[in-house]
Amino acid sequence: MKKALLIIIPALLTVIACRNRDQNLTADVEVPVTVEEIRLKPIEEYVNITGTVYPEGEVVLKSKISAEYYLEKNPRTGRPWQLGDRINAGELIARLEDQEYVISVKYETNKLNLELAESELRKQESLYEKGGVTLKELKTASINYENAKNTLENSRLQLEKTRIVAPISGVIVDLPYYTRGTQIETGSTIAKIMNYKTMFMDVQLPEKYIGKVKPGQS
């Protein structure tokens, strides 16, 4: 009886194992497949680089004279200029007042001298046409007029140093605080303006990419 059991059990195990192998061999396996039409496309290549970004325009305004400082108002807000304010070229940021400096420039005196020199030149031109003066006298009057005009222009430029005007449009990114009426020295920073309308980036491009980069690429 024991011998019979020993023979039957291995036989059953063999049958079961064979059946399992048959099932594994006949199993269906689903593989996902996608189909795409072959078309010509441009090959894109990306380059990761780092660099420094610069604004289109940047200017630091400094005092050219020693004088009393007065911050002006933003014409669009009615309050004094502040950091972050947008400013247009030609707008007044601050005034520098020094009465002695203004007197030394002699703008009004030089303006009067130009008016007199111009009047004298017109007079000499009229007399020369009538033969009343020589060519030398006419040339002298003309030289005096040009000298007076240049002197007045120089006075105007000197007087402009009392007006801190924005030379470019942009955003105020630096505006040191000075108490109104305080005396500031020559070379003191008044404001810094940046124009962010267009930005530039300074990068170090690897040599292997130099031949692949062209103007206008982004």
Radius of gyration: 43 Å
CATH class: Mainly Beta
What do we call the CATH homologous superfamily?
RNA polymerase II/Efflux pump adaptor protein, barrel-sandwich hybrid domain
CATH topology: OB fold (Dihydrolipoamide Acetyltransferase, E2P)
Q: Total domains, how many?
A: 1
Strand order of the largest sheet: 1-8-6-3
Return residue spans where pLDDT drops below 50 for at least 5 consecutive residues: 1-18
CATH architecture tag: Beta Barrel
The helix/strand order is: HEEEEHHHEEEE
Describe the sheet with the most strands: 4 strands, antiparallel
The secondary structure category is alpha+beta
Number of helices: 4
Shape: elongated
Proportion of residues in helical segments: 25-40%
Q: Terminal Cα separation, in Å?
A: 90 Å
Chain-averaged pLDDT? 85
Q: What does it look like?
A:
Helix content is 36%, strand content 23%. The chain has helices at residues 2-25, 99-105, 107-129, 135-159, and strands spanning 51-62, 67-71, 86-87, 92-97, 163-165, 170-174, 183-184, 189-203. It is elongated and about 120 Å long. The chain has a single domain, classed as RNA polymerase II/Efflux pump adaptor protein, barrel-sandwich hybrid domain (OB fold (Dihydrolipoamide Acetyltransferase, E2P), Beta Barrel), CATH 2.40.50. It has 4 helices and 8 strands. It has a 4-stranded antiparallel beta sheet with strand order 1-8-6-3, with no helix packed on it. It has a 4-stranded antiparallel beta sheet with strand order 5-4-2-7. The relative contact order is 0.20. It has 218 residues and is of the alpha+beta class.
